[in-house]
Amino acid sequence: MYVDVAADGDLAEGGMVAVKAEGEEVLLCRYEGKVFAVSRRCGHEGAALNIGALGGHIVVCPLHYAQFDIITGEALLGPADKSYGTDAKSPRGKTLDTKDLKTYDVKVKNGRIFVDPFSKISP
Q1: Which domains does the chain have, with CATH numbers?
Q2: CA distances from residue 104 to 11, 93, 121 in whole angstroms, order as listed
Q3: Which tens digits make up the pLDDT trace of 34-64?
Q4: CA 22, CA 117: separation in Å to the nearest integer?
């Protein structure tokens, strides 16, 4: 089920915008003319990725600079080497693991952007 979330004109090339679709926090990104949708919250500590930076197809978290691929949702670089695993703890006792972002199906029709919040292509 696709949900109308934004006007196509609201999302510039190389831009990001946060929207909600059926309760899901989604980050829309435009890269090479195509719209991609991923979960809005960082896979490390849940920071709002829409206040981070988008460079090409990589979104960077504003909190600890974790990097994610907006096409696949893959966590490319976390705040610590991913090989530490989910049981590794930082000095403050927080998990160092960085999870991939969820990705969602997107379509653009009649000047509107639609997201299927139930598609969750990845985690």
Answers
A1: 3-116 (2.102.10.10)
A2: 17, 32, 6
A3: 999 999 999 888 899 999 999 999 999 998 8
A4: 7
